[in-house]
Amino acid sequence: QVQLVESGGGLVQAGGSLRLSCVASGRTGSRYVLGWFRQAPEKEREFVAAITWSGATAYGDSVKGRFTISRDNAKNTMYLQMDSLKPDDTAVYSCAAKPTGLALVTGYDYWGQGTQVTVSS
After folding, report:
1. Residue 114 class from Cβ within 10 Å (0-12 exposed, 13-18 middle, 19+ buried)?
2. What distance in Å separates the CA atoms of residue 20 and residue 33, rounded to the nearest whole number?
3. Which residues, 6+ apart, have CB-to-CB distance to 3 below 8 Å?
4. pLDDT by residue, tens only, the chain of 121 residues
5. What b/e sequence results for 17-38 when a residue is b if at least 16 CB atoms lie within 10 Å of its CB, and e otherwise?
6. Sequence-ordered list of residues with C-beta below 8 angstroms from that of 72, at least 6 positions apart, any chain
7. Contact at 8 Å (CB) between 36 and 48?
8. N or C: which end of the chain has fewer CB within 10 A?
């Protein structure tokens, strides 16, 4: 069992930046893949970014060049640095975890509660 808690969401103007954090607890000894997803009202959940235990990363096309995912394995913490934010980035952002695998977009088993990010125009 893995518990994930996000923080760092808030209200920011377009063009601004936020950094989200996700702290994992429980069975954190495994080399989990960690990812960020987002969901806006009446929209489907969207893959944002993912990172493996060794540091390999993947990004959704809509955030490439603007968002940066990272992790500190010693602190069981994952980060999402969001720059050049747009109103379309407004959503609830959730972190997720799954055992190490090749597929980074799908197959996540554990989810955090989500943190709201609102970008004003």
Report:
1. middle
2. 17
3. 24, 25, 26, 110
4. 789 999 999 999 999 999 999 999 887 666 789 999 999 999 999 999 999 988 899 999 999 999 999 999 888 899 999 999 999 999 999 999 998 777 888 999 999 999 999 999 9
5. ebebbbbbeeeeeeebbbbbbb
6. 78, 79
7. yes
8. N
